[in-house]
Design goal:
351 residues; alpha/beta; Aspartate Aminotransferase, domain 2; Aspartate Aminotransferase, domain 1; 2 domains; seven-stranded mixed beta sheet; four-stranded antiparallel beta sheet; 12 helices; 11 strands; globular; binds pyridoxal-5'-phosphate
């Protein structure tokens, strides 16, 4: 199965029709005049909008301009791009399109991002947990031993921070949909899998404007996948799922690549500095290598340290319940990071 020839055979036998929910395949989507008529020309009396005001018109339901720019930037056709109200909506969309409530199963690989599980519970879809190995890598053989509609993998993974190896093997051998969540991909020197969606018909790559692009408030997420998968997501989404304000915010960010790079460089530099400084503290046992904008650190007494930091008005994420003794710290501005280090030094002196 791992030979190129084997891959081709498997690809040609891949049938999206047997994975998507029958009601979604048969769905006739909501249609509006804005599907056909766009732009400022013409008198628009079709959508019961208020003719007065500056935010009075519905946004482009197909986010054409945003997709055009993303398409150009990543050399991926616009037909392979879906825009969601944050990548959390993309995750929800995967369940809506592929998972029959009370019937289908989905695989997650904990410790990982919590919304895969929450979405499964919302949709009443059974979860199979195949934990990451001790080195925080995928246990591919166990994943492959479970029949499931979808497997979610997060690379770089939240909260462990590492890129996952062997995703390609999963793409070749898993019989269902492989979602690769690349929310943090911009923080590492790796093109990720978006460029491979025309090669692997079972691949969905999710990305977001919330992290490296600095637009968490705007809620703009992306899915890259085959045309067939994108068409199913498009017809399932609410017609105006991404507001005009949010589409504009994403376009503005994309039009300022210099600013993006400058901020990214600061965050990467700060990540390095934090790593160096944190490990000097006796309460810090280990800093896990990070390909993201956060550091997972093993400490003496995670719960106590977490409570202390809250009192000091420094809010971090206590991950003790999912990775024992671990706290996850987001890389902030240089001032914020200095404040974190100062608080930790003070704590260290008092114990
Ligand atoms: C791995 C991962 N995926 C997705 C998301 C959600 O991103 P968005 O803000 O685009 O919904 C997060 C947010 O923390 C995340 O860590």
């Amino acid at each position: 199965m791992k030979t190129p020839r084997g891959e081709r055979r498997r690809m040609s036998s891949f049938d999206i029709g047997s994975l998507a929910r029958p009601n979604i395949l048969a769905l006739k989507p909501y249609s509006s005049a804005r599907d056909e008529f766009t732009g400022a020309e013409g008198i628009f009396l079709d959508a019961n909008e208020n003719p007065f005001g500056s935010r009075n018109r519905y946004p482009d339901p197909h986010q054409r301009e945003l997709k055009r720019v993303l398409s150009e930037r990543n050399s991926i056709p616009a037909e392979n791009i879906f825009i969601g109200n944050g990548s959390d909506e993309v995750i929800d969309m995967v369940y809506r399109v592929f998972c029959e409530p009370s019937h289908d199963r989905v695989i997650i690989c904990p410790p990982t991002y919590g919304m895969y599980e929450v979405s499964a519970n919302i949709h009443n879809v059974a979860l199979v947990e195949v934990p990451l190995t001790e080195q925080f890598e995928l246990d591919i053989d166990t994943i492959l031993s479970h029949p499931a509609k979808v497997v979610f993998v997060c690379s770089p993974n939240n909260p462990t921070g590492n890129r996952l190896k062997n995703v390609e093997r999963l793409l070749c051998e898993f019989k269902g949909i492989v979602v690769v969540d690349e929310a943090y991909i911009d923080f590492c020197d790796d093109p990720g899998f978006a460029g491979k969606v025309q090669e692997y018909p079972n691949l969905i790559v999710t990305r977001t404007f919330s992290k490296a692009w600095g637009l968490a408030a705007a809620r703009v997420g992306i899915a890259y996948a085959s045309r067939e998968i994108i068409a199913l997501m498009d017809k399932t989404k609410p017609p105006y799922n991404v507001s005009a304000l949010n589409q504009e915010a994403a376009l503005k960010a994309l039009s300022e690549p210099g600013k993006f790079q400058e901020r990214l460089n600061i965050l990467l530099e700060q990540r390095g500095l934090l790593e160096v400084e944190l490990i000097k503290l006796p309460i810090v046992r280990k800093i896990y290598p990070s390909d993201a904008n956060f550091l997972l650190m093993k400490v003496d007494g995670a719960n106590e340290l977490y409570r202390y930091l809250v009192e000091e008005k420094v809010i971090v994420r206590n991950r003790h319940s999912v990775v024992p003794d671990c706290i996850r710290v987001t890389v902030g501005t240089p001032e914020e990071n200095r404040a974190l280090l100062q608080a930790l030094k003070k704590y260290n002196d008092t114990i």
